[in-house]
C-alpha cells in the first residue's frame, strides 16, 4: 500500500512540477527524491510497517511476493532514472510529464502485482499500459515513434478486450471476481475459455509467442530510453501478474493449462532466440532477446513452485538490471548496429568491461545473476516434471550466446571507431554499481530471495 | 452454463456484427450520385473540401469536455446516498472533486484551454 | 586450507593483474603468482596429509542444496600439480612474446588457472559447473583477443560447442540432484545414488557429451584443430596441456562412479568411437603440413587412447590414464614450445618450408628429438609408461568382448605416431636448408631452460614413475570399488 500511494501521489506531484519548478535540473532531482521515498516506504512495508490502513475489501493483498517485486521494480526504475533520466528529458518538451507517467506505471505495477480480484488485475494492467502508449509515441516528430505508439495501442486494446471477455466468462462460471476459486470434479467450460482468453491476453502483455509480433516494431520505434524501461521493468511486472494469476486463480485447474503454457514457453524461446540471431541492429536484437528471456520466465509459470517464485524475482532483477545497463549505453551510441560497436573496448575499456558483465548475465554464464535465475527456472521445470522442456530451454540458451557474444566480439575483437557521447563519471560508476549487483546476486542470490521469507 | 451457451454467445456476436453489414447490403438500393457523396454538416452545404486540416484544439476541447462530463455522472449516485452515509460522503466527494480540479488545473496550466 | 589457496591465489592474482599497466611488472606478477601456486600445490602433495588441509567446506547457496566444498584427493592432486607446473613453464617459455594490453592477457590466463583448479577440486556439482564455465570464459577471451587471422569465428565455434555441451551437463546434474534423497549437489550424495538402468543411460549421455567435447572424442573434435591453430601459443598450451584433461577428469569423477551401469553398457560404443578417433586423427596428422595442426591431431589421438582406457575399467589402465594425463600435459607443452620457437624464428609453421635446422641449432634439435620420442612413447620416456599401462589395461579388460581388437587398433596409433612425428622431425631438422632457415640461430635463455626442465621430467618419469603412481594408487582402488559392475549386479 505504501508504494502504491507514494508512487501515485508522486505522479501527480511530477505533473505539476514543471509549473512549480522552473528548471530541468530541479525537476529531475525531485523525481529521484520521490522515487527514493517510494523505495524507502516500500522497504518499511516489507519490514511490516504500513503507513496507510485502507480497507481494500480483499481486492488487493500486499504479500511478500508482491512487495518484494515492487521493491525490485522500484530499484530498477531508480537505476533507470540514474542512468537515463537526462536522455528521457531529451525526447520532447514535456520532460516532467515523462517522469509522472513513469510514476503512474509504477503505481500500475503495484496494483497488478498484488491483486486479489480480477478487476484489480485489469485495472493494474491498464494503469501500466496506458502511460506506456503515450511514452511510446512521445517522440512526436518521429514517424516511427507514432507508428509504434498506434500499433501498440491498437494491439494492446485488442488484448485488453480479450482479457475483459475472459474475466467476464470467469465471472459467469464462478460468480466472483475474487481469485482463489475452487472447482468441482468437472471444470466448467466457461472457466476454461476464460482462462484461455486470459492466457492469451497476458501472453500478449509479456510478449510471449505467438503473441509477440508487436514487440520488435514497438521496441524499435519507441524512443530508446522508453524501450529500455518497457522491455525490463514493465515486462517483469507483466510476468509477476501472470504468475499470480495462474498460481492463485488457476492453480487448481493446472492440468488443463500446463501443456499449453509449456508450448507457449517453448515457442517463445524458439522464436525469440532464432530471430534474434539474424538482427543487425543491437536495439532490435535486444527486443528479440527480451522475447527469448520471456520464454525463460514462462517456465516459472509452467512450474509454479517456490523455486519458480524465487527464480522469477531473481530473474526480474537480473534481467532488468542487465538490460537497463545495456540500453543506457546504447542510447548514447551514435550507431545502433553491431558494427557501431566495433572497437568500443579500445575507446571505453571500462564501459566495455561492464557491458561484458551484463551480456554474460543475459547469456546465463555462471557467477552472474543471469545464470542463477536461469538455473532456478530449470530447476523448477525439472521439478515440475518436464526434462524435455528444460533441455530445450538450455539449448536455446546456448543459441542466445551467439547474439550476445556477437556484441562482445564487436566491442573487443573488431576494429572500428565506435562513437559514444555524454558518458560522465557518475554514469560510469552507476553502471559499475549495477554490474556489481549483477555479480553479487550471481554469487549470493539469497540476499534477494531471502526477503521472500524473512 | 456450458459449452452451448458459449457457442451461442460467439454465434450471436458474429451474427450481430455480420448481420448488420448483411442487412445494409440487402436493402441498399444502390443509388450513387454526387449529392450522396457530399459531406454533411448541419444541413448546410459545405463550402470547401472537407479534407483540409483543422485545429487540434477542437479535439482537446472535446476530450476535456467528455472527461469532466463523464466524471460528473458520478455525482448522481452520490447524491442519492449522501444522507445515509453522512459526513464521510461529503469528505469523499470533496476528495473526488479535488482530484478533478487537479486535472483541470493541469490542463489549464498546460495551455490546453487556450484557443489557438 | 591448502585447497582453498590453490584456487584463491590465481583468482586474486588474476584480478589484480587487470590493474597492473606496466608490461614487465605484470609478467613478473603473473609468474610470481604461478610459482606461488606451484609451491602450494607441491606442499599439498607432499607435506600436508591431514584432512583439515585437504578438505574445505563452507556453506554457500544452502537453499539450492549446494555448498562450497573442495577436496584434494589423489586424482585432484595429480591434475592440480600438472596445472601448477604448467603455468610457470608456459609463462617463462612465452616470456618474449609480446601482447597488446598485456595486463588483460595475463589476468585472463590466471583466471583460467583459477577455474581449472576449481574444476579439479570441486566436490559439489553446482560448484563444479561454476568452475567449468569460469575456466571456459576467460579462455574464450584469450583465444579471440590474441589469436591468429581467423580467430574470431574459430574460437566462437569452440565456445558455442563447449557451452552447448556444458549446459546439457547442467541438466544432467540437475536431474541427478532431484534423484538424491537429501536434495543435494554433493559428490557423496551423487555416489550414493542407485538409478535404474534406463535413467543411467541418458544421464550418462547428458554428462558425457560435455566431457567428450572437451577431450575431444571423435566425432566431437572438430573445434579442436582450428582452435589450437588460431589461439595464441600460451593459450594453446593451456588448452591442450590442461584443459583437455578437464574432460578426462570429468568422466572419472562425475560419470563413471555416478552411472556405472550405463558406463558399462555404453562402454563399447565409447571405446569404438575413441579407437576410431585414434586412427582417424593419426591418419590426418600424417597429412598435415601445418606443424600446429599436426600436434593438435596427435593430441586427439593421445586423448582418444585415454578415453578408451577409461571405459576398460581395469586398475592398470586407470593407473596408466592418471600417469598419462600428467605426462601428456608435460610433453605437449614441450612440443608447443618447439612450435613457438620455430614460428617465431622463421615466421612460418609450414613443415614443407623448413629444413636443415639441426646443423645450426643443435640444442633445439636434441630437445626436439627427445620430445618427439616422447610423443611416440618410446621406452625410457614418460609417455611409454602411461601408454604401456593403458594398452595392458585395455587388453586385460573384462567389461568388453572386443578388448583384443581395441588393443591392436590402439597400438596402431604408436606406429602412426612414429610416422607423423618422425616426418615432422625430419622435415624440420634435416634435409636441405630452405631460404627461410638459412640464418637459423640456436635457442637460449628461458626457452632452453624450460625445455630442459621438461626433458628432464620426461626422462625421470620415464625411468622412475613411482612418485606419480603412488599419488593416485589409493584413488584408483576406491574408484574401481565404486564402478565394479559385477559387484553392483550382485546387489
From TrEMBL, chain A:
It is found in: Cell membrane; Endomembrane system; Membrane. The keyword Magnesium does not apply. InterPro entries: NADH-Q_OxRdtase_suN/2, ND/Mrp_TM. The chain crosses the membrane at residues 5-21, 27-44, 65-83, 95-111, 155-177, 189-213, 225-247, 259-279, 312-330, 350-372, 384-405, 431-453. It is an enzyme of class 7 (translocase). It catalyses: a quinone + NADH + 5 H(+)(in) = a quinol + NAD(+) + 4 H(+)(out). One of its GO terms (cellular component) is endomembrane system. It is a multi-pass membrane protein. Pfam families: Proton_antipo_M. Its EC number is 7.1.1.-. Signal peptide: none annotated. Keywords: Cell membrane, Membrane, NAD, Quinone, Translocase, Transmembrane, Transmembrane helix, Transport. Residues 117-397 form the NADH:quinone oxidoreductase/Mrp antiporter transmembrane domain. GO terms for biological process: ATP synthesis coupled electron transport. GO terms for molecular function: NADH dehydrogenase (quinone) (non-electrogenic) activity; NADH dehydrogenase (ubiquinone) activity; quinone binding. NDH-1 is composed of 14 different subunits. Subunits NuoA, H, J, K, L, M, N constitute the membrane sector of the complex. Belongs to the complex I subunit 2 family. NDH-1 shuttles electrons from NADH, via FMN and iron-sulfur (Fe-S) centers, to quinones in the respiratory chain. The immediate electron acceptor for the enzyme in this species is believed to be a menaquinone. Couples the redox reaction to proton translocation (for every two electrons transferred, four hydrogen ions are translocated across the cytoplasmic membrane), and thus conserves the redox energy in a proton gradient. PANTHER family: NADH DEHYDROGENASE (PTHR22773). This is NADH-quinone oxidoreductase subunit N. It comes from Flavisolibacter ginsengisoli DSM 18119. The lineage of its organism: Bacteria, Pseudomonadati, Bacteroidota, Chitinophagia, Chitinophagales.
TrEMBL record, chain B:
Its main location: membrane. InterPro entries: NADH_UbQ/plastoQ_OxRdtase_su3 (IPR000440), NDAH_ubi_oxred_su3_sf (IPR038430). One of its GO terms (molecular function) is NADH dehydrogenase (ubiquinone) activity. Signal peptide: none annotated. It is a multi-pass membrane protein. Its EC number is 7.1.1.-. Pfam families: Oxidored_q4. It comes from Flavisolibacter ginsengisoli DSM 18119. Belongs to the complex I subunit 3 family. Keywords: Cell membrane, Membrane, NAD, Quinone, Translocase, Transmembrane, Transmembrane helix, Transport. It catalyses: a quinone + NADH + 5 H(+)(in) = a quinol + NAD(+) + 4 H(+)(out). PANTHER family: NADH-QUINONE OXIDOREDUCTASE SUBUNIT A (PTHR11058:SF22), NADH-UBIQUINONE OXIDOREDUCTASE CHAIN 3 (PTHR11058). This is NADH-quinone oxidoreductase subunit. The lineage of its organism: Bacteria, Pseudomonadati, Bacteroidota, Chitinophagia, Chitinophagales. It comes from the Bacteria. It is found in: Cell membrane; Membrane. The chain crosses the membrane at residues 6-27, 56-79, 85-107. NDH-1 shuttles electrons from NADH, via FMN and iron-sulfur (Fe-S) centers, to quinones in the respiratory chain. It is an enzyme of class 7 (translocase).
TrEMBL record, chain C:
It is a multi-pass membrane protein. Pfam families: Proton_antipo_M. InterPro entries: NADH_Q_OxRdtase_chainM/4, NADH_UbQ_OxRdtase, ND/Mrp_TM. One of its GO terms (molecular function) is ubiquinone binding. Its main location: membrane. NCBIfam families: NDH_I_M. PANTHER family: NADH-UBIQUINONE OXIDOREDUCTASE CHAIN 4. This is NADH-quinone oxidoreductase subunit M. It comes from Flavisolibacter ginsengisoli DSM 18119.
Amino acid at each position: 500500500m505504501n508504494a502504491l500511494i507514494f508512487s501515485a501521489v508522486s505522479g501527480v506531484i511530477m505533473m505539476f512540477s514543471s509549473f512549480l519548478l522552473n528548471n530541468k535540473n530541479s525537476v529531475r532531482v525531485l523525481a529521484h527524491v520521490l522515487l527514493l521515498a517510494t523505495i524507502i516506504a516500500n522497504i518499511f512495508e516489507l519490514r511490516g510497517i504500513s503507513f496507510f490502513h485502507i480497507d481494500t475489501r480483499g481486492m488487493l493483498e500486499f504479500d511478500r511476493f508482491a512487495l518484494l517485486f515492487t521493491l525490485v521494480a522500484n530499484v530498477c526504475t531508480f537505476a533507470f532514472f540514474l542512468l537515463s533520466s537526462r536522455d528521457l528529458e531529451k525526447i520532447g518538451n514535456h520532460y516532467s510529464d515523462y517522469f509522472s507517467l513513469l510514476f503512474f506505471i509504477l503505481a500500475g505495477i503495484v496494483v497488478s502485482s498484488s491483486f486479489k480480484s480480477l478487476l484489480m488485475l485489469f485495472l493494474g494492467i491498464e494503469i501500466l499500459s496506458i502511460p506506456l502508449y503515450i511514452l511510446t509515441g512521445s517522440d512526436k516528430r518521429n514517424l516511427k515513434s507514432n507508428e509504434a505508439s498506434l500499433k501498440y495501442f491498437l494491439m494492446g486494446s485488442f488484448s485488453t478486450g480479450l482479457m475483459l471477455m475472459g474475466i467476464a466468462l470467469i465471472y459467469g462460471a464462478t460468480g466472483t471476481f475474487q481469485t482463489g476459486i475452487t472447482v468441482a470434479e468437472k471444470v466448467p467450460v466457461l472457466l476454461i475459455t476464460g482462462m484461455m482468453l486470459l492466457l492469451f491476453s497476458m501472453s500478449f502483455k509479456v510478449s510471449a509467442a505467438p503473441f509477440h509480433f508487436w514487440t520488435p516494431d514497438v521496441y524499435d520505434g519507441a524512443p530508446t530510453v522508453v524501450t529500455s524501461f518497457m522491455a525490463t521493468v514493465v515486462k517483469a511486472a507483466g510476468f509477476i501478474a501472470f504468475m499470480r494469476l495462474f498460481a492463485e486463480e488457476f492453480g487448481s485447474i493446472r492440468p488443463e493449462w500446463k501443456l499449453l503454457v509449456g508450448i507457449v514457453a517453448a515457442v517463445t524461446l524458439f522464436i525469440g532466440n532464432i530471430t534474434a540471431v539474424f538482427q543487425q541492429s543491437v536495439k532490435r536484437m535486444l527486443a528479440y532477446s527480451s522475447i527469448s528471456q520471456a520464454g525463460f520466465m514462462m517456465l516459472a509459470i509452467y512450474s509454479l513452485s517456490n523455486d519458480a517464485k524465487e527464480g522469477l524475482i531473481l530473474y526480474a532483477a537480473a534481467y532488468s538490471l542487465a538490460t537497463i545497463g545495456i540500453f543506457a549505453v546504447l542510447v548514447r551510441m551514435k550507431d545502433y548496429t553491431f558494427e557501431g560497436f566495433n572497437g568500443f573496448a579500445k575507446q571505453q575499456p571500462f564501459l566495455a568491461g561492464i557491458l561484458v558483465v551484463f551480456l554474460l548475465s543475459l547469456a546465463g554464464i555462471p557467477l552472474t545473476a543471469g545464470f542463477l535465475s536461469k538455473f532456478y527456472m530449470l530447476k523448477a521445470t525439472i521439478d515440475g516434471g518436464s526434462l524435455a522442456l528444460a533441455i530445450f530451454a538450455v539449448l536455446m540458451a546456448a543459441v542466445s550466446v551467439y547474439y550476445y557474444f556477437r556484441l562482445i566480439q564487436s566491442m573487443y575483437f573488431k576494429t572500428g571507431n565506435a562513437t559514444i557521447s555524454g558518458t560522465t563519471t557518475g554514469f560510469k560508476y552507476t553502471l559499475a554499481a549495477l554490474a556489481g549487483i549483477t555479480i553479487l546476486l550471481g554469487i549470493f542470490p539469497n540476499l534477494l530471495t531471502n526477503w521472500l521469507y524473512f | 452454463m456450458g459449452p452451448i451457451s458459449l457457442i451461442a454467445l460467439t454465434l450471436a456476436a458474429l451474427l450481430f456484427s455480420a448481420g448488420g453489414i448483411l442487412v445494409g447490403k440487402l436493402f441498399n438500393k444502390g443509388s450513387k450520385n454526387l449529392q450522396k457523396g457530399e459531406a454533411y454538416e448541419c444541413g448546410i452545404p459545405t463550402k470547401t473540401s472537407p479534407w483540409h486540416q483543422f485545429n487540434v484544439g477542437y479535439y482537446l476541447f472535446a476530450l476535456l469536455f467528455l472527461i469532466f462530463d463523464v466524471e460528473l455522472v458520478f455525482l448522481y449516485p452520490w447524491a442519492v446516498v449522501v444522507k445515509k452515509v453522512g459526513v464521510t460522503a461529503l469528505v469523499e466527494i470533496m476528495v473526488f472533486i479535488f482530484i478533478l480540479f487537479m486535472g483541470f488545473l493541469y490542463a489549464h496550466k498546460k495551455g490546453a484551454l487556450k484557443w489557438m | 586450507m591448502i585447497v582453498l589457496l590453490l584456487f584463491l591465489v590465481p583468482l586474486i592474482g588474476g584480478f589484480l593483474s587487470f590493474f597492473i599497466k606496466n608490461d614487465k611488472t605484470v609478467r613478473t606478477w603473473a609468474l610470481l603468482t604461478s610459482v606461488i601456486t606451484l609451491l602450494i600445490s607441491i606442499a599439498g602433495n607432499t607435506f600436508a596429509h591431514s584432512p583439515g588441509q585437504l578438505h574445505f567446506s563452507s556453506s554457500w547457496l544452502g537453499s539450492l542444496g549446494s555448498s562450497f566444498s573442495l577436496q584434494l584427493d589423489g586424482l585432484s592432486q595429480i591434475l592440480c600439480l600438472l596445472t601448477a607446473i604448467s603455468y610457470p613453464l608456459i609463462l617463462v617459455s612465452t616470456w618474449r612474446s609480446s601482447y597488446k594490453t598485456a595486463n588483460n592477457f595475463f589476468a585472463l590466463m590466471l583466471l583460467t588457472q583459477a577455474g581449472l583448479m576449481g574444476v579439479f577440486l570441486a566436490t559439489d556439482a553446482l560448484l563444479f559447473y561454476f568452475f567449468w564455465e569460469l575456466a571456459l570464459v576467460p579462455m574464450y577471451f584469450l583465444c579471440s583477443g590474441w589469436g591468429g587471422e581467423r580467430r574470431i569465428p574459430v574460437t566462437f565455434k569452440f565456445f558455442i560447442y563447449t557451452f552447448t555441451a556444458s549446459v546439457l551437463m547442467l541438466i544432467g546434474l540437475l536431474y541427478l540432484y532431484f534423484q538424491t534423497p537429501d536434495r543435494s549437489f554433493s559428490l557423496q550424495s551423487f555416489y550414493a545414488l542407485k538409478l535404474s538402468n534406463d535413467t543411467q543411460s541418458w544421464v550418462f549421455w547428458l554428462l558425457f557429451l560435455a566431457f567428450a567435447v572437451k577431450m575431444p572424442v571423435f566425432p566431437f573434435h572438430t573445434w579442436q584443430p582450428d582452435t589450437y591453430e588460431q589461439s595464441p601459443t600460451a593459450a594453446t598450451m593451456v588448452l591442450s596441456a590442461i584443459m583437455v584433461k578437464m574432460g578426462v577428469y570429468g568422466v572419472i569423477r562425475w560419470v563413471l562412479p555416478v552411472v556405472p551401469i550405463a558406463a558399462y553398457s555404453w562402454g563399447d560404443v565409447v571405446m569404438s568411437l575413441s579407437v576410431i578417433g585414434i586412427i582417424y586423427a593419426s591418419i590426418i596428422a600424417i597429412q598435415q603440413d601445418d606443424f600446429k595442426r599436426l600436434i593438435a591431431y596427435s593430441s586427439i589421438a593421445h586423448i582418444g587412447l585415454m578415453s578408451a582406457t577409461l571405459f576398460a575399467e581395469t586398475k592398470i589402465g586407470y593407473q596408466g590414464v592418471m600417469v598419462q594425463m600428467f605426462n601428456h600435459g608435460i610433453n605437449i607443452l614441450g612440443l608447443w614450445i618447439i612450435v613457438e620457437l620455430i614460428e617465431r624464428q622463421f615466421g612460418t609453421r609450414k613443415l614443407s618450408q623448413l629444413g636443415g635446422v639441426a646443423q645450426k641449432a643443435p640444442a633445439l634439435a636434441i630437445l626436439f628429438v627427445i620430445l618427439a620420442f616422447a610423443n611416440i612413447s618410446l621406452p625410457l620416456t614418460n609417455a611409454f609408461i602411461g601408454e604401456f599401462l593403458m594398452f595392458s589395461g585395455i587388453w586385460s579388460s573384462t567389461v568388453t568382448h572386443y578388448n583384443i581388437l581395441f588393443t591392436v587398433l590402439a597400438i596402431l596409433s604408436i606406429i602412426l605416431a612414429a610416422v607423423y612425428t618422425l616426418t615432422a622431425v625430419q622435415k624440420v631438422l634435416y634435409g636441405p636448408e630452405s631460404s627461410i632457415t638459412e640464418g637459423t640461430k640456436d635457442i637460449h635463455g628461458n626457452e632452453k631452460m624450460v625445455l630442459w626442465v621438461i626433458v628432464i621430467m620426461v626422462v625421470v618419469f620415464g625411468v622412475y614413475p613411482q612418485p606419480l603412481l603412488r599419488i593416485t594408487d589409493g584413488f584408483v582402488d576406491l574408484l574401481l570399488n565404486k564402478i565394479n559392475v559385477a559387484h553392483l549386479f550382485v546387489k
